[in-house]
Amino acid sequence: MISNDPSLDYLIERFAQRSGIQVSLVQAVPSAVQVGASLKPAAILFPSIESLESAQALIAGLAGSEIPIMVFSSVAEEARARELGADHCLFHPLTYESFFSALAEANVIHEEESV
């Protein structure tokens, strides 16, 4: 997850722990080369439409990759998120169930894993 919001970071870490997945937090947008070479994420999660918009070089560099791009957004922002390259949206207000469902939809985790 690319974020520098301690409250959101804590919430996502708790949700991830409950889901049995590992979340790595980075504060700066990495290059596509860094993502592919060293980070190798199952998905990339952006905390806002604005952060997704500022990472367009990364999104373009990952075009054609199997890495899902996810973003926290409102329902009203979904079309804009898709235009900016998001594969999946996690809608506000964020709950554990919506977090888990979005990860399952992105094939990061499987529905039969504990909820």
Textual characterization of the structure:
- This protein has 115 residues and is mainly α.
- It has a single domain (6-105), classed as Response regulator (Rossmann fold), CATH 3.40.50.2300.
- It is 43% helix and 10% strand.
- Helix 5 links the parallel strand 2 and strand 3.
For CATH, the homologous superfamily is named as: Response regulator
The biggest beta sheet, please?
A: 3 strands, parallel
Structural class: mainly alpha
| Backbone CA Rg | 13 Å
CATH topology: Rossmann fold
Per CATH, the architecture is 3-Layer(aba) Sandwich
The succession of helices and strands, N to C, reads: HHEHHEHEH
How many beta-strand runs? 3
Describe the structure concisely for a colleague:
This protein is mainly α and 115 residues long.
Pick out its properties.
single chain; 115 residues; mainly alpha; Rossmann fold; three-stranded parallel beta sheet; globular
Map the helices and strands.
Elements: H1 6-19, H2 32-39, E1 44-46, H3 49-54, H4 56-61, E2 69-73, H5 78-83, E3 88-91, H6 96-105
Parallel strand pairs: 1-2, 2-3
